[in-house]
């Protein structure tokens, strides 16, 4: 059985791909194989000109309950170096198209880190987030101490990582970890509506926004603003910028070509 499922389920919108984590018996524990399959699939979608937005999800019980503990329990540091566990995680950052995490159930440890690698998170009201690695004698390892701290601040990140406690979706919203909370039963529909909104925008400008926002974590404010301005200038070499502004002035809907 494949660890990853990919569908184009939205007949009225061919530009949206849905990727599902598919190890339900172990709450989508993130084995190295799963991570490799996920990254391969994301690269394939990133290269497919038809695809404009990717939704990443799990199932009702779990987005993902972390890295696969059974796979790690007896590992040595050298095993981990030799199996390149983190290469897939580093490759996630190379995806240029928007990825929305649609989270129901548990997003714990590596599962929370995977959701935070996405561009934003929409959570069902059943979602639970946490970095519980401390409960099994270790620490977050795929960016949890860094991305969670940037998302919710030092004090709350310290508390979550040091206690291993989970927070509910509403709390995650109040703390700025997730963009939106919706009823769990309508999570996929609501996420689709947001994906559709983005897929109807100029695709190159969307990629440049992703790049510019991500630079906010890497650069000083003045360097980041300079980077943003250059991306802004760059959009003026696209037909989509001309189309978007002309359509506004002509009071019609734009038709973007992605160039
Ligand atoms: C392997 C896991 C797993 C995991 C759950 N399972 N989480 N297997 N790795 N991370 C398996 C269980 O062993 C069990 O298998 C089945 O999934 C159902 O889980 P239960 O525990 O029976 O379910 P429940 O009682 O509802 O509890 C749910 C839960 C709990 C609270 C989410 O499963 C849990 O605490 N899981 C571990 C969470 C965690 O510590 N995550 C961090 C991992 S370290 P069987 O065969 O018994 O049915 C990490 C580091 C990342 O993520 C570093 C970067 C790579």
Strand and helix layout:
Layout: E1 4-7, E2 16-21, H1 32-47, E3 53-57, E4 62-64, H2 69-72, H3 77-82, H4 85-92, E5 99-103, E6 106-108, H5 110-117, E7 120-124, E8 128-130, H6 144-152, H7 154-163, E9 166-168, H8 169-174, E10 180-182, H9 187-199, H10 203-215, H11 221-235, H12 239-249
Parallel strand pairs: 2-3, 3-5, 4-6, 5-7, 6-8, 7-10
Antiparallel strand pairs: 1-2, 8-9
The site of hexanoyl-coenzyme A has 18 residues, from helix 2 and strand 6.
Which range best describes the helical content: under 10%, 10-25%, 25-40%, 40-55%, 55-70% or over 70%?
A: 40-55%
Distance from N terminus to C terminus (CA atoms, Å) equals 38 Å
**Strands, total number:** 10
Report the major sheet: 6 strands, mixed
Strand content: 15-25%
Helix segment count? Answer: 12
**Bound ligand species:** hexanoyl-coenzyme A
**CA-based shape:** globular
Average pLDDT over all residues: 97
The gyration radius over C-alpha positions equals: 19 Å
Instruction: Return residue spans where pLDDT drops below 50 for at least 5 consecutive residues.
Output: none
Quaternary structure: single chain
